[in-house]
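question for whoever is on the cluster today: can someone run the full assembly for these? two chains, 574 residues total. i dont have access anymore since they changed the login thing
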Amino acid sequence: MTFLNLDFWIGVGVIAGIYGIFVLGLQLNVGFTGIINLGQAGFMAIGAYAMGMLVVDAGWPMALAFPAAVGVAVGAGLLVGLPTLRLRADYFGIVTIAFSEIVRYVLQNASFAGGNQGVIGYDAEWRAFQSWVSPHLKPLGLDRATQAPLLIAVWAMLFLCVCGLKALQASPWGRALRAIREDEDAAAALGKNVFAFKLQSLGLAAALAAIAGFFLALNVTYLYPSEFDLSFTFFGYAALLLGGFASYAGAALGAVVLCALTEGLRFLDLPLSSGQVGSLRMILVGLMLVGLSLYRPEGLLGNRSEMQLRA
Amino acid sequence: MKARTHPALLSVEAVVKRFGGVAALRSATFAVARGSITALIGPNGAGKTTMLDLISGYDRPSSGAIRFDGRRIDGLATHRIARKGVVRTFQLTRVFAAMSVRDNMLVGAQKHPGERLHQIAFGRAAVRHAEAEALERAERLLSAFALSDKGDHYAGALSGGQRKLLELARALMAAPRLVLLDEPMAGVNRALGRRLLDEVERLRREQGMTFLFIEHDMDVVMTRADQVVVMAEGAVVAAGPPSIIRRDPRVLDAYLGRKANAA
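^ ran it for u. tokens below:
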């Protein structure tokens, strides 16, 4: 495979964009609200499976199944948050890990979700749409790249999400969230319903996870439980740290850079098995994080002075 | 209209607070008159901050009642008590450090439509209007507290005294009816402290706002408060105007521990 393989880089771009959307939700929770959500992969699984099952089992058109699946994920977010968001931040984090694992185990074992066989056959409409769009991409020279329409869709969605979240962050709602992140007791003393704001933040993050899950489902063409492993969330946190705390553009950039770097490893012609390359990838991520905390602790687009003020 | 005729804005009735086996408050009773500046004094460990925590809803009394404007508020969540018009500041200031001074102020605005997601989506005009109004009030308050030129600075970069001023100004953004101040003068230089107290007196005079503050500086208490509540060992031992309190033997006891020495 050559370094300039277009299909390969389009594939990387799709994954990077999906990760970007996924990490935006983490940023909303961690960077802007101060709640440690470690269950993002669980929300993504719920969104992706809900979409897949609504199309395959219930026969819904994808255009309807997608927003419905986002709704299901938001519902799951509220359901998880209601009994747990009053917990201290670290306890809440542990509960969300448990949630994420419960989702995965249920999907693995429940017959309605196909078990380890997964869900397949939900993307016929998308592939029809893709083959209709492809010829129109000829002016861009992308008509032969099958994944090009998905790449465009993912990045358009990522762009929309970043813009929307930035607008929200600039609103009084976003300001109240930041106040809660800084000092939730003081925010409550000013009449802010801390619990309600946290719940909204978690619900929105779940929606972003579901959107990411939708595109992931289109990318892999079939859904299986181990895709939604906890490591997906942890990789997201690595992207978050790389991109920078409390910056949406940073979160998206961190996801893109991290994906490009780790995928790019394939071009080093290493005498290693694929399993070893996978491990090497994790070592690389670890080393990068160590370097980051030494030389640029605020991340690529983070704000150093804000970070120091919080310490 | 019953509330209007209620003489005290705040009344604390036989409030007890136990932490495990220790009683931080052993039946405390006192009232804060409408439009008064009331000082809450007493030696360390008397239960003053615990009292403020109970009034502002950070904790609930083990027994007893707290009424604001005639209605029970004990046991309500902090944010609900704040929305009724009871806002507090903290002994160790709690500004939102990584936010600008101006944003700190704006968080204090109440019933802001821009804090509701559906309003952000469908009520842009109302949000803009409320935001402009809040900004104007914030600027006015900042200038009253000599913080006008700090609006864009991070609150965490202010001096200790300026943080105290910001915390009070932020509390005032909520247009409270009762302000609870926990040692507003601690760590504030004299000039800033005077400014803070002058502002408190002006707000009482012009808006009829009521203040309850914990203070150790007796000069400040005697010259600025019109009512003094004295606490010792979890109970209220005396209450009245400063001129009377100054001569009350029970107050001297509380501070000098004469009873304890005699025993």
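summary bc i know u wont read the tokens: The longest strand of chain A covers residues 119-120. Chain A touches chain B at residues 168, 171-173, 175-176, 178-179, 182-183, 185-194, 200, 305-307, 309-310 (CB under 8 Å).
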